[in-house]
Amino acid sequence: MVEHTIEAARAWNPLVVAGPDVARALTGNSHAAVCVNDAPSLGMSHSLALADAALDPESSIVLLLADKPLASAALIRAVCERAGEADVVYPIRADEPGHPVFLSVAARRKIASLPRGDTLQLLRDDPSLLRLQLEMDDLGAYLDIDTPEALNALVE
Q1: I need a labelling partner for 33 at 20 to 30 A (CA). Which of 14, 27, 57, 85 fits?
Q2: Which domains does the chain carry?
Q3: d(CA 90, CA 97)
Q4: Could you write out the DSSP letters of every residue in the chain?
Q5: Are strands 61-63 and 33-36 parallel, antiparallel or unpaired?
Q6: Which of 56, 136, 53 is nearest to 100 (CA)?
Q7: Mind listing the pLDDT tens digit for each residue in 14-51?
Q8: What are phi and psi of 93, to 5 degrees?
């Protein structure tokens, strides 16, 4: 499933943060760098901290999730193109936030202070950061797909 996300992000030289098994499976994938997360139980904030440490600190980043494999290059591009001076940019539909999530350099500086767990919403909703919500109906931003079988059922 992560390969769909890698392909969508290919133009942006993606970095995949993955547990040891997925990282091994991606060995040799020429379209993405891989960072091994030896403690995935620490949640998304830990994965985000690993990515933050591995990337140029003066660059913005875009967070994609492997369980959103219908995210397309067009969706990623739309979020990036709208970023402008915003610190955090993400799709939204009927008050449901989606992915990808754009993080400016200023937003990245706050990653280290996130508590353990799936706490991205704390960064996304930080009142000291300029936030831009993009009204979008693209299902790739919202549809959570957890298994290859579920993905195959959707694309067939």
Answers
A1: 85
A2: 2-155 (3.90.550.10)
A3: 7
A4: -HHHHHHHHGGG--EEEE-HHHHHHTTT-TT-EEEE-S-GGG-HHHHHHHHHHHS-TTS-EEE--TT-TT--HHHHHHHHHH-TT-SEEEEEETTEE-S-EEE-HHHHTTGGGSPSSS-HHHHHT-TTS-EEEEE---GGGT----SHHHHHHHH-
A5: unpaired
A6: 136
A7: 999 999 999 999 988 778 999 999 999 999 999 999 99
A8: -145, 120
Q: Which amino acid is at 98?
A: G
pLDDT 10s digit of each residue in the chain, 156 long?
A: 888 899 999 999 999 999 999 999 998 877 899 999 999 999 999 999 999 999 999 999 999 998 898 999 999 999 999 999 999 999 999 999 999 999 999 999 999 999 998 888 999 999 999 999 999 999 999 999 988 888 888 776
Could you tell me which of 137, 151, 6, 2 has the C-alpha nearest to residue 75? Answer: 137
44 Cβ contact list (under 8 Å, min separation 6): 117, 118, 119, 120
By percentage, how much of the chain surpasses pLDDT 70? 99
